[in-house]
Write a structure and sequence with these properties.
Blueprint: H1 18-38, H2 45-54, H3 61-72, H4 79-102, E1 106-107, E2 110-111, H5 113-117, H6 119-140, H7 143-166, H8 174-199, H9 204-231, H10 234-237, H11 243-246, H12 252-260, H13 263-274, H14 282-292, H15 295-313, H16 321-335
Antiparallel strand pairs: 1-2
Helix pairs in contact: 1-3, 1-4, 1-16, 2-6, 3-4, 3-8, 3-16, 4-6, 4-7, 4-8, 7-8, 8-9, 9-15, 9-16, 12-14, 12-15, 15-16
Length: 338
Amino acid sequence: MGVVIPLAGAREPRASLQLLFDLVGDDMAGVNRIILDKARSDVELIPELAGHLIDSGGKRLRPMLTIAAARMCGYDGVDHVQLAASVEFMHTATLLHDDVVDESDLRRGKESARILWGNEASVLVGDFLLGQAFKMMVDVGSLEALRILSNAAAVIAEGEVMQLIASKNTETNEDEYLAIIDAKTAALFAAAAEVGGVLAGRPKTEKAALRSYGKNLGIAFQLLDDVLDYSGDQEQLGKSVGDDFREGKITLPVVLSYRRGSGENRKFWRRVLQDSDVRDGDLEEAIALVRQHGAIDDTVERARHYGSIAHDALAIFPDTNYKAALLDTVAFCIDRAH
């Protein structure tokens, strides 16, 4: 692979998470044990439904950020494993809630929990996992980590409401959309990275750098997800290509294509998104339009921009394998578009 984010003096990105996997593997085994333990309940439906999503794959990138950030900052305790597990439970809870709000049929290539068990069960089990996440945070005993992660939970919920308001609204502009993904996606990435520095007792400047790294990585990650919905494949995306389109989601490729299109193009977007009048061949037409107006390439370039900010945020840290792995993670997230 070539250099994904060309920066003066930067090492060549591996466009792979292998180094990260190798470094955090033992700690992630501990995270997985905690996840299995905390997903238990005497209420049979809870572990059954939670296990469906937990076992369905996913790279567990967010908890790996917590572990790698803590280790990069010199932390040698054990509480980072519990905080990483709480981060993953927060993420899993939001996925369960998201699928209900978005009426998604698939999650990571499998039938979503709401299809198998219903909307009510999915929401309630998501609430259970969120409650377990906060119990684990309290057990760690770091008030600052609890503050950061609880604030992230509130911001994520705000982002979900913002997305709900913007759903099917073709007048959504780029700034409004970026505010949505900053809250909905980037907030947990930012918190996951920052709490690693908190556990290590690092100074404010380093914690702020980790927060910036996570936030900008999260924005880049989401922008690439937006791209893949119109240009990826189901196996790579973990859901059906065009799911965002069919659910009427306003994403950056749509925002750019709508703004740049002709009156007839905009009429098409209003019909399929605002009016939910989707006909045979409309997905192919939508893909053609986002490509015709350069919306895919420009969304990738914006993702590269945020990836570069994430890359630069780590410059204050000494060069270590953990820092290299976190930089590789930026390259990997961007390189998913290829």
